[in-house]
């Protein structure tokens, strides 16, 4: 399975579903389907602002439309993981797995989120380690310069 966290919506799909959503919003009657499809596109956008907007729409659906809870939880997990809110993403994964513990797609998503957390944690430690080495080097250089002036 390709990494769903890297999947990006086409601009055509985003525009199409955004238009449908806004037309219905203007008429005052947004269907669950239109809101979900728009949110589904937004959480797969390459822009964090869009992803956050999609998360808000999905949360609203989750609270008001019980029939689609599985789908909402899945895409809430994806959206949060894409903006690096990994703990929230795992919260939604766990909530989904309470409903359907053997769902392979969600178990795979959980592994992908954990891999990203691990990778970014290691990268974070490497950056911190590099900063410590750089500071140590500067201090050493300062000491060497100070002793050479004596």
Automatic annotation (TrEMBL):
Source organism, top-level taxon: Eukaryota
Q: Which UniProt keywords apply?
A: Apoptosis, Membrane, Mitochondrion, Mitochondrion outer membrane, Peroxisome, Transmembrane, Transmembrane helix
Q: Where in the cell does this protein reside? A: Mitochondrion outer membrane; Peroxisome membrane
Major location (coarse): mitochondrion
Q: Which is a Gene Ontology cellular component entry for this protein?
A: peroxisomal membrane
Checking InterPro entries in the record gives: Fis1, Fis1_cytosol, Fis1_TPR_C, Fis1_TPR_N, TPR-like_helical_dom_sf
The portions of this protein that span the membrane are 121-146
One of the GO BP terms on file: peroxisome fission
What Pfam families does the annotation carry?
Fis1_TPR_C, Fis1_TPR_N
The record gives the membrane topology as:
Single-pass membrane protein
The UniProt function text for this chain reads: Involved in the fragmentation of the mitochondrial network and its perinuclear clustering.
| Comment field on protein domains | The C-terminus is required for mitochondrial localization, while the N-terminus is necessary for mitochondrial fission.
**Family, as annotated:** Belongs to the FIS1 family.
Q: What is this protein called?
A: Mitochondrial fission 1 protein
Q: Which gene encodes it?
A: LOC106125891
